[in-house]
Amino acid sequence: MNQPINTADLYDERGEQLASVPLQFQSLGGRSHFSGKARTIRCFQDNGLVKATLATPGHGAVLVVDGGGSLGTALMGDMIAESAVANGWSGVVINGAIRDREAIARLDLGVKALGSNPRKSAKDGAGEVDVDVVIDGVTVRTGAMIWCDPDGILVER
């Protein structure tokens, strides 16, 4: 595996070429440092698109899910996270909640989320894929590089 990239060092090197997400996410996956090209989903308390997307080849990408900051339902659990690992995703950033956090912590997958809730979400597939999402003032667009570690999240402007 490549040497992990520390976001603080990367920011020192590239400065304002990068946007830093101020919202405080928890690091919940088994991989503390992860990066890749972003794919995006906007959805609210419905993880149908999350499940479908993570079941496709990830090629080392990071799925960024704007769940509107809702902690009311989980947008990813251990089975969907296992699918992400099997399909080669580097990690998942969820502006919302996950569940099965102990199982997810054992997976070779980077996971940033606001917290956890055992309540599952709807599975209707409502939402949008590969659209610009804004998390705490930072725009994430599909194809932009994103870097995550315990210090935070940096996004290519």
Describe the fold and architecture:
With 157 residues, the protein is α/β, with parallel strands linked by helices. 18% of the residues lie in helices and 33% in strands. It contains four helices and eleven strands. It is globular and about 40 Å long. The two termini are 26 Å apart. The model has no long low-confidence stretch (mean pLDDT 97).
How many beta-strand elements? 11
If helices are DSSP runs of H or I spanning 4 or more residues, what is the number of helices?
4
For this structure, the quaternary state is: single chain
Structural class: alpha/beta
From the N-terminal CA to the C-terminal CA, the straight-line distance is 26 Å
Order of helices and strands: HEEEHEHEHEEEEEE
Uncertain residue ranges: none
Main beta sheet: 9 strands, mixed
Mean pLDDT: 97
Into which percent range does the helicity of residues fall?
A: 10-25%
Molecular shape = globular
**Radius of gyration computed on alpha carbons:** 14 Å
How much β-strand is present in the residues? 25-35%
